[in-house]
């Protein structure tokens, strides 16, 4: 096939039996037409997934460095290109599921640490963040406003029903 | 200079030009994705990415022209062009989706914070000319509607839409204290202080933190909203 100039990239001309790095969506179009086979990413095999899983089990306070969209990638590859994977797909699938679950449990444990100022969540993928986003943002917003109202409330108490516009520092 | 040298140089130049073009395209797309996600996650309206959007739009136009030119003679051509067209169309859809969502997100914020934005010249500067025009005419239409429906029946001192008296402001403002997820890109020298806590932002890390604390880093793109 001849090269194609796209909006976000240029695809070089493609010949048979050639290894090439292209965007995943593009590879999937070719794959669906049986025009190519996919080379799975280097983290998507039994060995590295097991390593990642071990890491998640051993390290209780941090997350393994998986690619930013590993869940999406693995789902697409399992769905459309499972015949290109060298390992047994069902084992990989269950490993990915295990990884997903143990990470979610760790996130939920980590949420105990939530306070009104901040929370650090390194190496969490976008999908996992979006999974907890509605809940966490709501709770932290509430904590923030609670924190504000208690601190201003205390100030007001000490001012003994003083005028709102008064200088707080002086009264303290 | 020999003839071959000239040819070689020419080839090198064109090749490096091609290479750069790919780099620009990729980084533009990355930037568009970042702008889109940031806009969706940010409580306030961010700067309009004028030059980026212009570049993307002009590339979209080229692709549409290509599709139109080639689909006319589709009956006669072979299958290769069909596949090519399909690839170009699906990419077009992908880019269009992000672009639309980006612009719509901005418009929904413009709708929500119209009065707040109109009161601040700096904020109006963040809009594109088309967005400013939209905001003005939408605002006009809304006021006309309110007036003809019920505002004219109310006592005069209650007719204002931007009343801030009485302890409650009628002007809707973005909640800058809302928590956001950010990813730190560059080293930030300053330490963030919230209450009694000091927070150092480490590059590569992901934080959940209130927007007001990282606002200035979002502006200069030291941190990315995700």
TrEMBL record, chain A:
GO terms for cellular component: GINS complex. Residues 155-172 have a biased composition (Acidic residues). Residues 1-39 form the DNA replication complex GINS protein PSF2 N-terminal domain. Residues 43-145 form the GINS subunit domain. Transmembrane segments: none annotated. Belongs to the GINS2/PSF2 family. One of its GO terms (biological process) is DNA replication. Keywords: DNA replication, Nucleus. Component of the GINS complex. It comes from Cyberlindnera jadinii (strain ATCC 18201 / CBS 1600 / BCRC 20928 / JCM 3617 / NBRC 0987 / NRRL Y-1542). Residues 148-172 are annotated as: Disordered. SUPFAM superfamilies: GINS helical bundle-like, PriA/YqbF domain. Its main location: nucleus. Pfam families: PSF2_N, Sld5. This is DNA replication complex GINS protein PSF2. It is found in: Nucleus. It comes from the Eukaryota.
UniProtKB/TrEMBL annotation, chain B:
It comes from the Eukaryota. It is found in: Nucleus. Gene3D superfamilies: 1.20.58.1030, 3.40.5.60. GO terms for biological process: DNA-templated DNA replication; double-strand break repair via break-induced replication. Keywords: DNA replication, Nucleus. Residues 174-226 form the DNA replication complex GINS protein SLD5 C-terminal domain. Residues 78-149 form the GINS subunit domain. It holds the Pfam family Sld5. GO terms for cellular component: GINS complex. The keyword Nucleus applies. Belongs to the GINS4/SLD5 family. PANTHER family: DNA REPLICATION COMPLEX GINS PROTEIN SLD5 (PTHR21206:SF0), SLD5 PROTEIN (PTHR21206). The GINS complex plays an essential role in the initiation of DNA replication. This is DNA replication complex GINS protein SLD5.
């Amino acid at each position: 096939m001849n090269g194609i100039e796209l909006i976000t990239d240029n695809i070089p001309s493609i010949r048979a039996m050639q290894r090439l790095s292209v965007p995943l969506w593009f590879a999937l179009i070719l794959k669906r037409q049986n025009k190519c086979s996919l080379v799975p990413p280097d983290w998507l095999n039994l060995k590295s997934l097991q390593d990642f899983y071990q890491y998640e089990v051993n390290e209780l306070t941090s997350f393994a460095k998986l690619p930013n969209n590993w869940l999406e990638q693995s789902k697409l590859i399992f769905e459309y290109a499972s015949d290109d994977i060298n390992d047994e797909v069902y084992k990989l699938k269950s490993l990915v599921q295990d990884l997903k679950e143990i990470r979610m449990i760790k996130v939920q444990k980590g949420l105990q640490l939530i306070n009104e100022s901040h929370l650090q969540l390194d190496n969490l993928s976008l999908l996992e963040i979006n999974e907890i986003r509605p809940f966490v943002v709501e709770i932290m917003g509430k904590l923030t406003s609670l924190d504000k109202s208690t601190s201003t409330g205390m100030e007001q108490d000490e001012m003994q029903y003083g005028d709102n516009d008064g200088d707080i520092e002086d009264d303290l | 200079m020999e003839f071959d040298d000239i040819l070689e140089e020419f080839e090198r130049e064109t090749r490096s030009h091609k290479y750069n073009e790919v780099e620009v395209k990729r980084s533009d797309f990355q930037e568009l994705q970042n702008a889109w996600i940031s806009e969706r996650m940010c409580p306030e309206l961010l700067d309009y990415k004028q030059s980026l959007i212009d570049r993307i739009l002009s590339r979209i136009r080229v692709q549409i022209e290509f599709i139109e030119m080639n689909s006319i003679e589709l009956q006669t051509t072979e299958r290769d062009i069909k596949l090519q067209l399909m690839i170009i169309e699906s990419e077009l859809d992908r880019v269009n989706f992000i672009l639309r969502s980006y612009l719509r997100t901005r418009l929904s914020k413009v709708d929500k914070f119209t009065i707040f934005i109109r009161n601040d010249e700096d904020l109006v500067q963040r809009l594109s000319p088309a967005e400013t025009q939209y905001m003005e005419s939408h605002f006009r239409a809304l006021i006309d509607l309110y007036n003809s429906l019920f505002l004219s029946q109310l006592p005069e001192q209650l007719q204002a839409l931007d009343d801030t008296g009485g302890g409650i402001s009628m002007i809707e403002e973005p909640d800058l204290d809302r928590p956001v997820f950010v990813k730190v890109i560059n080293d930030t020298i300053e330490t963030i202080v919230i209450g009694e806590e000091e927070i150092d932002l480490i590059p590569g890390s992901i934080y959940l933190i209130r927007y007001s604390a990282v606002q200035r880093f979002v502006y200069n793109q030291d941190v990315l909203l995700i």
